Amino acid sequence: MTEYLFDGPTLLGELGIPLLFVVFVGVLTGLVLFVREAKGGDGSSIERRAEINMGRINIQGGIGAGILILMLLGAVLIGIPALRYLALPGVCAGLVVGGSLAFWRHRHQ
Question: What is the pTM of this model?
Answer without folding.
Answer: 0.35
